[in-house]
Design goal:
The complex is a heterodimer of chains A (250) and B (206). Chain A is mostly helical. Chain A has nine helices and two strands, in the order H-H-H-H-E-E-H-H-H-H-H. In chain B, 61% of the residues are buried. Classes of the chains: A mainly alpha (250), B mainly alpha (206).
Chain lengths: 250, 206
């Protein structure tokens, strides 16, 4: 069973410094969120799609992760056309969808998906520890980085453990249904997962102390910022400035 | 569900959320000892992995939030643990977004802290029945407070978001019931199997 945090892409960005990918993502997200016109936002989405293709993400995985079909988004996209005041374009009984509302809903759908796609495209090829190291080098507090690295390691182990526990439940003919028995069973499952994982945590901590852990980690990795990374960043800046300019001036 | 995507909220809400989250994180990190990191990491991982389980609920299915449980078990450490889980969920599953990370952290971590403050002191001397009740209260409170904060983030971002915010609140009510039952069961399971994991137990054992 692959780890839930296994990298999903191996494309153009796998060789870039993870710090560049994070910086690019934050920059792109900030610019995208600030856009106000459909045209420029659509262009941002197109850019994100381009990033995804360059990263070589499997399309099936992408469809599942698009923000469009998620509960909160659905609630927003369905209500906004009717709640934003403006010129009515479509009447459904007593409710009228306004052009302004449709515009706002479309804008939100475009922005949310542009950022999600860029995020998956840029970070999808990273190993989780590389992400942690890069965040550390970008100034995230030490303890937080260590917590992230340790958590990443534990997630893989716990996911295995959860798989074992659920197989054990299935072997006892457990079928999840929408009833109290199921929910209580899941409570016990999570309880067991916690007990086992805490036992593991004690062992991990003891083992770390045995190896001389005295409250400090050292980030050892081979991330190196190359000239090409600077070039990518410099290429990104006018692109983002162009998006903003298009949004404000056109 | 508790993850607000990017592009929805207004700039003042985003900035406020980011600042408050950063403040909470700074306080929590100062209180967190390096020696406690492995344990916090395991619980953060357990939280992350458990939230992947999809739980049947009516005709649909839901994912657990578990922030009430995290608050009860971890106290202040729940803040960095939840933050880390959110970063990983965003980076690897595309839940939430980049700029809203601060707001999302606040919406999920603040209820955990409130549960910790209100219910953690009661755990030490509670009997098995009461432990289930405390767990159920934390589960329900975690989800409902998060729902309220999500609704508030939406509502403060614009007048036109209020109907969607109300819809979110309604959707969360059944989820809170399931979460209450699950969290209560988790706590009474821990009370029976590993009482030393519950806060307040150290005092009697040490």
């Amino acid at each position: 069973m692959p780890s839930p945090l296994a990298p999903s892409a191996q494309g153009t960005f796998a060789r870039r410094d993870p710090r560049l990918l994070i910086l690019a993502l934050v920059l792109f997200a900030l610019v995208t969120v600030s856009l106000e016109r459909i045209g420029a936002t659509g262009l941002a989405l197109a850019l994100a799609v381009l990033v995804v293709f360059a990263a070589g993400l499997p399309p099936r995985l992408l469809l599942r992760r698009l923000a469009l079909l998620e509960g909160l988004m659905l609630a927003l996209l369905l209500t906004l056309p009717f709640t934003v005041p403006g010129a009515p374009v479509l009447a459904l009984g007593p409710f009228a969808a306004s052009a302004e509302g449709l515009h706002k809903a479309a804008l939100i759908a475009l922005k949310a998906n542009a950022v999600v796609l860029a995020m998956l495209g840029l970070l999808g090829g990273l190993e989780a520890p590389a992400l942690g190291h890069a965040l550390g080098r970008l100034g995230l507090p030490d303890k937080l980085v260590h917590l992230l690295l340790l958590t990443v390691r534990q997630i893989a182990r716990l996911d295995d453990e959860l798989g074992r526990l659920r197989r054990a439940m299935r072997a006892r003919a457990f079928v999840p249904r929408s009833n109290r028995h199921t929910w209580a069973s899941y409570g016990n499952l999570i309880g067991m997962l916690l007990v086992r994982s805490l036992e593991r945590a004690r062992r991990v901590e003891a083992a770390m102390r045995c190896r001389g852990f005295h409250g400090r980690f050292y980030l050892l990795d081979s991330q190196r910022w190359r000239g090409a990374d600077t070039a990518w960043l410099l290429a990104l800046l006018p692109l983002c400035a162009g998006l903003v300019a298009l949004d404000r001036l056109a | 569900m508790a993850h607000i995507p990017d592009g929805v909220l207004s700039a003042p809400v985003l900035v406020t959320g980011a600042l408050l989250s950063a403040g909470l994180l700074a306080v929590a990190l100062r209180r967190l000892d390096y020696a406690a990191l492995p344990q916090a990491a395991v619980l953060a991982a357990a939280f992350f992995v458990s939230s992947l389980i999809s739980i049947p609920l009516g005709l649909s299915s839901a994912h657990l939030l578990l922030n009430g449980l995290m608050g009860l078990l971890l106290g202040w450490t729940a803040v960095p643990a939840l933050f880390v889980a959110l970063v990983l969920q965003a980076a690897f599953f595309g839940y939430g977004g980049v700029v809203v990370l601060g707001v999302n952290t606040l919406n999920i971590a603040l209820p955990a802290l409130l549960c910790a403050a209100a219910l953690r002191p009661l755990l030490g001397r509670a009997g098995p029945k009461a432990v289930f009740g405390i767990g159920a209260a934390a589960g329900a409170a975690g989800v409902l407070l998060t729902a309220a904060l999500v609704a508030l983030s939406l509502g403060l971002s614009g007048e036109s978001f209020w109907p969607a915010a109300k819809a979110v609140l309604v959707i969360y009510v059944p989820l809170a019931l399931v979460e209450a039952l699950v969290t209560g069961t988790v706590l009474s399971f821990l009370k029976r199997v590993a009482p030393e994991m519950l806060p307040g137990a150290e005092a009697r054992h040490a």
